[in-house]
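Summary of Year 1 activities. Much of the first year was spent building the evaluation harness for sequence design. The harness presents a backbone, in tokenized form, and records the residue chosen at every position. We chose the following record to illustrate the format because it has been used consistently in internal testing since the harness was completed.
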């Protein structure tokens, strides 16, 4: 009950609200002046279309007047920022709607507690407060039910409790009994009366004179104009309230937004799943593609590295003088000269040909390599049995062989000890003196154990009958010096031969070249995958836009109950981020799983930290970028339109 000297709460002067539809201007409110004091119970009456809801929206700061002045507690609403208006909706006003506007997937107590989030009330306190209010309004025992499980009267009590959760000074009730039978309507009115008796200002909007009769003051509007006011003398200018500074509220914390996002994602799990799908596929594609690309690279590199990374390969035949196998330019003296260079740790001259080895009734055909002991140094190879050729063997042209494990396996099927055995090769008899340790096959399937080595001199004289070399492999001590030594080698040989009738290849640069090509391939695969991530992002945007459209009522309600545009923006941004984050995690797992399955199918894969981290970060970025447009749309939603919809 308001006494004559209670301060003015609401004051309208010449307030107009025009709607322009095409060429027609609808004057929904036309020059309305009105003062309402603290603690009044006012009924605003009028026919449908007379401007009641327009008035209420302006009073509740959901809408601004086209012209005229509106003051709340002495604050000129026209001067307030959107965030200050939100603070008014949060603390000063509580809305009660004709159709309750409860969120169907929240329980009664959650619905009531909803606006308290924006007042930074901790969760437990919110729930407690909400439960108390529901108790007070007589629906305490229904608080864990969803609106669908409540009667109309119960739902309206829940919505009154929600209006009160932040301690509203004014309850704005637009046709609160319009959807209720008259008995229930009377109960709801009694509740509003009780709140009024406790000091809450109630502004009740109705087209029903009987309902209006419950109020202590009746105002009638017609065609947007004030027709009558039962407190005709009005209290304009009688007592101005003390003006309290109006502070905007801080945005809700990111954690609260994340929790809200998780809940809303759970409530719409199917849509969440669809949204996730694009991101999951995108991230998984990046991870799997990069693992496969990287695996291919490693495979090729291993093959080269199995040759040794710090080697220079000198072959006969220059740029204008292609190597034809018979090109006779490299000699043993060349090899000896190269061994003199500083920084060179080993020089393996060799001459190759194909030959067949026979032991008993078993044959092995393959490459025979005539070389020196440096071949083992160059290849980093050890013997598993026996000895290598000695200097004396070399000089005496001894018919000796050192063989790889594959040859042992092929020829000595009965488990004979190969050392000391005699075999036939190229119409000569050779004795096996050593066996190379098994190296197995490369990732690319090259058998490294198919080696048949003879002393260089023996090979030259007995097998090839020629003095020239197929190649010289130079091992450098320090890989960093490989370029300078390559230049020295080239210079030395050119000086010895008088022309560049040879080529020098450097495995390090070969590896570099190949890994560059492979990197290009990997990035190509990666970018194909990134495109799918981009497409996933568009999916996120699309589904988020749908989500915003579908949740217009929820957004409108949040804004009407005190959320700032920034809160809504943050919530939807975070929702997109949470989706993309989930999608990122699932995608990384799925991509790794796909790569592992590929590995089972003998496709080379290699994992590194970079692609999953990159893909995950991209997913977050996608969320940030593609979630922005929907979030902005949500934050700019007009709550009046949204709440007017069914
Ligand atoms: P009431 O709540 O008394 O039924 P309203 O305040 O909803 O009336 O509407 C007052 C007038 O303003 C009506 O003629 C209505 O058609 C018009 N109106 C309300 N909202 C809009 C709008 N967004 N655009 C155009 N005209 C509107
Ligand atoms: Mg209306």
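For this record, the design step produced the sequence shown next.
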């Amino acid at each position: 009950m308001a006494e004559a000297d209670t301060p003015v709460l609401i004051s309208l002067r010449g307030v107009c609200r025009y709607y322009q539809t095409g060429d027609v201007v609808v004057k929904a409110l036309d020059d309305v002046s009105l003062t309402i004091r603290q603690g009044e119970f006012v009924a605003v009456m009028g026919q449908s279309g007379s401007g009641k809801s327009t008035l209420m929206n302006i009073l509740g700061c959901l809408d601004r007047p086209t012209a005229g002045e509106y003051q709340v507690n002495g604050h000129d609403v026209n001067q307030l920022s959107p965030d200050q208006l939100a603070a008014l909706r949060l603390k000063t006003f509580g809305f009660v709607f004709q159709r309750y506007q409860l969120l169907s997937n929240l329980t009664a107590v959650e619905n009531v507690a909803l606006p308290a989030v924006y007042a930074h009330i901790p969760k437990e306190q919110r729930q407690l407060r909400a439960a108390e209010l529901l108790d007070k309004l007589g629906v305490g025992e229904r608080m864990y039910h969803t609106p669908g499980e409540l009667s109309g009267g119960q739902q309206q009590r829940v919505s009154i409790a929600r209006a009160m959760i932040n301690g509203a000074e004014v309850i704005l009730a637009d046709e609160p009994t319009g959807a209720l039978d008259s008995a229930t309507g009377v109960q709801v009115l009694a509740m509003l009366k009780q709140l009024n008796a406790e000091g809450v200002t109630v502004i009740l909007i109705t087209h029903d004179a009987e309902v209006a009769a419950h109020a202590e003051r009746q105002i009638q509007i017609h065609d947007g104009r004030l027709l009558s006011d039962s407190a005709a003398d009005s209290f304009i200018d009688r007592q101005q309230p003390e003006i309290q500074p109006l502070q905007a509220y801080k945005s809700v914390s990111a954690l609260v937004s994340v929790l809200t996002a998780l809940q809303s994602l759970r409530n719409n799990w199917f849509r969440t799943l669809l949204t996730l799908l694009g991101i999951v596929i995108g991230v998984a594609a990046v991870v799997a593609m990069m693992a496969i690309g990287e695996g291919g690279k490693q495979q090729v590199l291993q093959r080269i590295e199995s040759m040794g990374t710090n080697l220079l390969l000198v072959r006969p035949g220059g740029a204008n003088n292609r190597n034809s196998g018979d090109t006779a330019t490299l000699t043993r003296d060349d090899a000896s000269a190269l061994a003199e260079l500083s920084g060179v740790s080993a020089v393996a001259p060799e001459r190759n040909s194909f030959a067949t080895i026979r032991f008993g009734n078993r044959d092995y055909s393959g490459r025979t390599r005539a070389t020196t002991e440096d071949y083992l140094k160059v290849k980093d190879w050890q013997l598993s049995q026996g000895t290598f050729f000695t200097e004396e063997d070399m000089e005496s042209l001894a018919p000796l062989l050192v063989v790889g494990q594959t040859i042992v396996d092929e020829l000595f099927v009965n488990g004979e000890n190969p050392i000391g055995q005699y075999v036939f090769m190229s119409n000569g008899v050779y004795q096996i003196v050593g066996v190379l340790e098994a190296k197995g096959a490369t990732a690319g399937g090259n058998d490294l154990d198919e080696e048949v080595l003879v002393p260089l001199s023996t090979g030259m004289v007995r097998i090839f009958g020629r003095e020239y070399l197929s190649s010289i492999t130079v091992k450098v001590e320090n890989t960093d010096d490989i370029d300078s030594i390559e230049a020295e080698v080239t210079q030395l040989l050119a000086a010895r031969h008088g022309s560049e009738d040879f080529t020098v290849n450097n495995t390090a640069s070969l590896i570099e070249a190949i890994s560059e090509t492979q990197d290009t391939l990997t990035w190509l695969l990666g970018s194909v995958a990134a495109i799918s991530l981009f497409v996933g992002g568009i999916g996120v945007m699309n589904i988020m836009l749908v989500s915003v459209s579908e949740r217009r009522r929820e957004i409108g309600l949040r804004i009407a109950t005190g959320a700032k545009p920034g809160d809504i923006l943050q919530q939807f941004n975070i929702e997109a981020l949470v989706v993309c984050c989930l999608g990122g995690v699932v995608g990384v797992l799925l991509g790794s799983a796909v790569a592992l399955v590929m590995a089972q199918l003998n496709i080379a894969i290699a994992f590194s930290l970079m692609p999953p981290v990159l893909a995950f970060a991209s997913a977050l970025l996608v969320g940030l970028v593609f979630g922005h447009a929907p979030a902005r749309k949500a934050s700019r939603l007009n709550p009046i339109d949204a709440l007017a919809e069914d």
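The chain has 21 helices and 20 strands. Quantitative recovery figures across the full test set are reported in Table 2.
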